[in-house]
Fold:
Amino acid sequence: LDAILKIKNLTKEYVMGNVVAAALKSVTLDIYEKEFLVILGPSGSGKSTLLNIIGGIDSPTSGEIFFRNKSLNNSTEKELTAYRRYAVGFIFQFYNLIPNLSAKENIDLVASISKNPIDTDILLEETGLKEISSHYPSQMSGGQQQRVAIARSLVKNPEILLCDEPTGALDIKTGIQILKLLKKFNDEYEKTVVIITHNASIALIANRILYIKDGGIDRIEVNKNPIEADDVVW
Ligand code: ADP
Ligand code: MG
Structure:
C-alpha cells in the first residue's frame, strides 16, 4: 500500500517564558492509503498536537509533511486551505455543531462549500439520522450530535478522516455505534481513518496501532486481525 501521508522528523516546541517544552520530538511516520490507524498514548503525550499538524490546523516547529508526495510545508496559504477544506475531515470529542442550524442544515452547509460532496440524504440515512434531520443540536443526545458531526465531516468526501477522542464524551453503547460508523466509512468508501484515543480497547479495531509516549513514537504494532466495533469492550 502507498503512503497517503509521509511525516518526517516532525517536532513541535512551545516556548513559555524561558522554558521550551517539546510536545513532539522528531516523529517520523507513514500513514497508508485506506488504513485504519489508532494512535494511543497517555494524556499530554502529544497526540492532539500530531493530529492537528497532520490536518493542517497547526504547524510544526521543524520537520516535513507530504500529502500524496506534495510538501505541505512549502504550500501556499491557498493550497493549505484547499488541503484542509477538501482532503481532510476532522472529528473532535465535542461536536462543535452550529446551534441554530438543524442536523440536515449543519451537513448541507459544509456540502455547499465542497467540491465533490456526498449526497446529504444518503449520509443522513447511513448515519441513522433521517428521523431527526430537522432537530437542532440542543434537541439531540451526545451520540446523535456526534453522528451529525461525522456526517458533516464525511459529506465533503475527504480522503482522510482525523478523529480526536471521538468517543471520549460518550457511553460505551453510543461509543460503539460511532466506531461502527467510522469503520464503515473506512470499509465502504475506502478512506483513511486516524483515531486518537487514550482508551486501549478501541485500538483492537485498527489495522495499525501507534503508541505515543512523551512526544515520540514508542512503537507501532500491526494488527493482523482487527475486531469488529461491536466486540469492543471498555
Ligand atoms: P494529548 O493530546 O496526547 O493529550 P497534546 O498534544 O494536547 O497531548 O499536548 C502535548 C503537550 O504539549 C502537553 O504537555 C501540553 O501541555 C503541551 N501543549 C499543547 N498545546 C500547548 C499550547 N498551546 N501551549 C503550550 N503547551 C501546549
Ligand atoms: Mg488530546
In short: Residues 44 and 214 are 8 Å apart (CA to CA). Residues 47-48, 164 surround magnesium ion (ligand 2) (CB under 6 Å). The helical segments are 47-54, 77-87, 103-111, 120-126, 142-154, 172-188. The longest strand covers residues 3-16.
